[in-house]
Structure formats: C-alpha cells, structure tokens
Design goal:
This protein has 16 helices and 2 strands. The protein is mainly alpha-helical.
C-alpha cells in the first residue's frame, strides 16, 4: 500500500522500494527510507469494509448480497481479509524480529494464533448451538443438513475429533483456521523476508503453483477432500500483505508506484467488470477459458476456483489492492467522519469478525423458511451492523481508558 505523509532519514536497508536491486544482496546496507508521520487510516477503513461485506455475504439470499464486491469482480472480501491480515501482521510483529528478539517475537505471533484458535472453537460451538436450537424449538430441521453439519450426525465421534483438529470446519467458519495456519508460519516468513524479500515472494509463488498443480491441501476429517481455504494457495496473498506491512512499518513500499502497473491494474478491473456484466463478452471469455483448459492449461490458471485461489481471482484481487492503495482520494476518504464506523470496525477486527459470524449464523437460522424481503432483511442486517459498530466503540473506549489508567 502507499503511505501517508512521510519524512526521510537514513537507516539500514529493509524491504521497500529498492527491493529489485537488492534481490541477491543480504540486508544491512544503508539506504534511504522514510518514516510514517502517523497511522494509515486506510487499513482500518478497508478492514472494516471487508468485515461488513463478509457479514452481509454470510446471510445469503438477500438483496444486499448483490451489492458487495464479489458481484463486480472475481475476488471477494475473503481475499481482502487475508491480504490485510498479512499487512497487519507485518506492522505488528516485524519490529521485534528486526531487533533480534527472535524468541519473544515468535512467542507473540504464536500467542495470537492460540487466541484465534480458541475464538474459532468458541464461535463454532455457539453456531452449532444456534442451529440445534433452530431445529429443536423452531422445527427447522433442514438447517442440520446445511453448512457441513450433516457429518456431526452421520459420524459424530469422528466429527468431534475433527473440530478441535481444524479438519472439520462448518460452513462460513473456514477463514480463521486459514489465518491460524498462516500465523504459525509467520515467524519464518518474517525472518526470511527481512533478508531476502523477493526470494520469499518467488518461493511463495512456487508454492502456490505446486499446490494447484498437485492438489496439495490440508486434509479434512471425517469428510474427504481438503480445507475450503487451502493454506498452500492462500499463503501467497498473506505473504504479499506481510511483506507490504513490513515495508510500511519502516516507511517504505514493498511494491513501488508505477504508472504502467497502475494502468494495467485499472485495465484488469475494467475488463473483469465487463466480463461479468456484459453477457456476450462473459460467454465468449468463459468459452475461451474452457478452450484453454482443453488445451491442457491447469484449472488454477483457467478457472475461478476459490479453494486454490485460481489465477483470475488472484489477479483481480491484486489489481484492486494496487489501485486502492495508490489512489490519493482514499487517504482523504479514510480520514472523514463518514468512514469513522468502518475505522472502528477495522481496529477491532477479531471481536467484530467473531461476533458478526455468530449473528450471521443466527440470521441464517431464523430466515430458513423466509423469502427474501428488502425491508425485513435490511432491518435485520442493519441491526446486526449497529451491534457490531457498538461493540467496536465500547472496546475502543475501554482500551483507551485502560491505557489512560496505566499511564
């Protein structure tokens, strides 16, 4: 991402705008860098926006679902969530690795992974309770056959083993296991990224290719197949975000601004939108992708598979991130009062995501036999979002009071 106002100073070399010429050189050479003057509010705003879209998408079959970003491109809020989680990790954890406190830095990252694991288990059990209650008291027994709940009744012992192992994930609760697995690898990625950032990217791309080519994935149990979000594929977005966050922490950019890249990114977004919204063009392009597949190109290149983060999804996501990061208007928008609720949500991402997931599963359950209704769905989703904004406000105020008291 691009940066807010900066000031220049001299410091040892770190991942930033000079990464190409430092491909084969170890870190440590002095070069120019810039120090951020303040917090980049865009990250908070866009994280909040991604959480809003995830919440809406997790209550399917409403009109409002058609307004989220997945209707205007190949990627959706999941790609944004993973990329920005990488940025946040780079900002939060990289300094301790730079200072040489390796074990303390690793322990801090893994402590966050442990926290995410317990949050995932808790919200999984809460959602199971919601669906069980809908079946028991509302008579909506069909909810027990959706969202990958059926194995709990067909193979209860195996499923109860799979849930704590993260090998059995109920529908819509798949992204935290991905995040946990990526955080466990984060210390190694940061350590390598501080010294050889471009080689880390090349290794990440190679792993993405190998995962698609050989169907590498973490196993599911008791179901066959693998994880819905394949960590071997989705790590590429996280690594790019992580290296970007590490560069931002020192006032640099991992990917420098280029008019050529900006033009290509804008062209990608416009062409993708036309592909999706112009039926004749969409049919032609889909047929073209089918012909390329028939010629032997692999599925992760020619189609839109989400589990393996297929190339069209990946390129669309990267183009979107590049444009938004380098569009000066976004800096001004992120500071406005209108964006304040999104900034609040983004700063309390874990609590908002977990609470929003439980609320969305509750709405799914109570809407089981309801038809889509613009007003009723709007009131339910609006009430849920108000609860999330209120939660974020309370948590932010509480943290401020704690800091003031400890100071």
């Amino acid at each position: 991402m691009s940066l807010p106002d900066t000031v220049a100073e001299r410091t040892p070399g770190l991942p930033g705008a000079g990464w190409l010429r430092r491909f084969w050189a170890p870190a440590g050479r002095a070069e120019q860098r810039v120090v951020p003057a303040g917090r980049d509010h865009r990250l908070d705003m866009f994280r909040g926006l991604a959480l809003v879209m995830i919440f809406i998408n997790h209550v399917p079959n409403t009109f409002y679902e058609s307004l989220t970003n997945r209707n205007f491109g190949f990627s959706d809020a999941a790609e944004a969530f993973v990329f920005m989680s990488g940025i946040a990790a780079g900002l939060a954890y990289s300094d301790r690795f730079r200072s040489g406190h390796w074990w303390a830095a690793t322990a801090r990252v893994w402590a966050r992974a442990r926290q995410l694991y317990f949050v995932h288990i808790v919200i999984t059990m809460l959602c199971l309770g919601i669906f069980a209650g809908a079946a028991k008291w509302l008579g909506f027994t069909e909810v027990l056959t959706k969202n990958n709940l059926a194995p709990l009744f067909q193979k209860p012992l195996s499923s109860l083993v799979g849930i704590p192992l993260l090998s059995h994930q109920i529908g819509y609760l798949n992204i935290l296991p991905l995040y946990i697995s990526l955080l466990l690898a984060t210390p190694l990625i940061i350590a390598a990224g501080l010294r050889w950032p471009v080689r880390v990217v090349l290794a990440s791309v190679a792993l993405w290719v190998l995962a698609g080519q050989f169907r590498m994935n973490f196993p599911s149990f008791p179901n066959s197949g693998g994880w819905f979000f394949n960590p071997f594929s989705w790590q590429l977005l996280f690594v790019l975000g992580l290296l970007s966050g590490m560069a931002m922490k020192t006032g640099g950019r991992f990917v420098p601004f280029s008019r050529v890249l900006m033009g290509l990114a804008i062209a990608t977004l416009v062409f993708t939108l036309m592909w999706m919204k112009i039926p004749v063009l969409g049919q032609y392009m889909n047929a073209t992708m089918g012909r390329l597949s028939a010629l032997g190109l692999p599925f992760y290149i020619t189609w839109f598979d989400k589990a393996y983060l297929a190339l069209p999804r990946l390129l669309h996501a990267l183009a979107l991130f590049y444009v938004l990061a380098n569009w000066p208007l976004m800096q001004r928008v992120a500071r406005t009062a209108a964006a304040a609720p999104l900034r609040l949500l983004g700063r309390q991402g874990l609590a908002v995501f977990a609470t929003g997931t439980v609320i969305s599963m509750f709405l799914q359950a109570v809407r089981t036999r309801s038809q889509a209704d613009l007003v009723a769905d709007g009131l339910m989703l609006g009430a849920g979002l108000l609860v999330l904004v209120g939660l974020a406000w309370v948590l932010t105020k509480t943290q401020a009071l704690v800091r003031a008291g400890s100071g």
